[in-house]
Amino acid sequence: MTSPILTTVAVTGFTVAFFHAAIPTHWLPFVLVARARQWNRTKTLVVTLCAGLGHVALTSLLGLAIAWFGFQLDERLGAAFPWATGSVLVLIGLYYFWRQWSGRGIQHHHLIGGHHQASEHCGHEDGHSHWDEELKDSPLGSRNAGDWAAMSGLFMMLTLSPCEGFLPVYLSGVQFGWHGFLVLSAILAVATLLGMLIFTWLTLVGLEKLEVRNFERYESALLGGLFTALGALIILLEH
User: Fold this and answer.
1) Alpha-carbon torsion, ordered 175, 181, 187, 193, to 10 deg
2) CA-to-CA distance for 45 and 25, rounded, in angstroms?
3) What pLDDT, in 10s, does the model give residues 67-107?
4) How would you classify residue 96: left for phi > 0, otherwise alpha for psi between -120 and 50, otherwise beta?
5) Residues 6+ apart with CB under 8 A from 8
6) Is the pTM of this model over 0.85?
7) How many Å apart are CA 56 and CA 47, to the nearest integer?
């Protein structure tokens, strides 16, 4: 495998991680809780960063398991491994296309104590977020609970919901060994934290009309296109 493949995988990984972090589930709850508790911008961004680190850590841990399994498989398949990897990525891409077509989308995070905590789908037909309603039902926005309880709740909310869209990227980097794993983990961290902090900050300073919720509706289609193209590229370049 040549370096252009690793570059392609890295660019794909950054795109997946950054735009996944741009979804309101990764920054809007922090803004709403901060407003309810009257946190300043610095404190809000620090809480967002800490929760993002937990999110990245769990995703990287799952990626480590995928990488280790991939290394074992690579030893057995040898030259056929890139073909197998490319085929799996194409199948994953088709699966995301199916999720988009069926309206299932990506599972969302919910505030602790909110009425929608066990729900997988959240309606946005009216152009408004459900987070305001959930915040009313959650102790995170209540002054009766301390700030540490609110910060812990936000941290757990995001940490226990890893970036599932990035996991196939780890699979595509198996052929580059531990070096590839470390590169992709660094890309995951930079892109995720950058996206979360940027959109949190933009909302805090008043730019609330960003139409990023439209991206949330088509996230599965974008992931489907990225993984299908990446899998096809790996197969073609190997050929």
Assistant:
1) 150
2) 15
3) 998 888 878 877 777 788 888 888 888 888 888 888 765 55
4) alpha
5) 230, 233
6) no
7) 14
Closest CA to 147 of 4, 37, 35, 29: 37
Euclidean distance between CA atoms 66 and 44, whole angstroms: 33
Q: How far apart are CA 52 and CA 18, in angstroms?
A: 12
46, 53 Cβ separation under 8 angstroms: no
* Contact by Cβ (8 Å): 52, 158: yes
d(CA 40, CA 196): 17
Cβ atoms of 27 and 201 within 8 Å: the answer is: no
Helix orientation angle between 177-204 and 41-77, rounded to the nearest 10 degrees: 160
In one-letter notation, the amino acid at residue 165 is: G
- Please state the length of the chain: 239
Q: How far apart are the first and last CA of the chain?
A: 11
Name 204's Cβ contacts closer than 8 Å, sequence gap at least 6. 31, 34, 41, 44, 45
**Which helix (DSSP H) or strand (DSSP E) does residue 7 occupy?**
helix 3-21
